[in-house]
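<amino_acid_chain>
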Amino acid sequence: MVDQVEARLKEIIQQIATDRRAEVLEMETMPDHVHLLVEVDPQYGIHKLIKAIKGASSRALRSEFPHLKSRLPTLWTNSYFVSTVGGAPLEVIKQYIENQKNV
């Protein structure tokens, strides 16, 4: 069941990003959070993308997987961490995200 939820979450995130003209460069899901490396138009804003991802994924996942309704009133908290990586080698950032499941 966890693998199904994880796979569906990744699909939803990818679809939201595509709809918002953002590109998911790397993604790794953890039991209680998600690591994303995304490229988003600064005029659109990362905050709008995160809000869209959290809202759509919470609604869809809780609808498709009823056992998730027994968790918090919503699937996500209001908090998130964002950092820019301008100038950093993207391959290093991608590798860091990929390795999060092994930590």
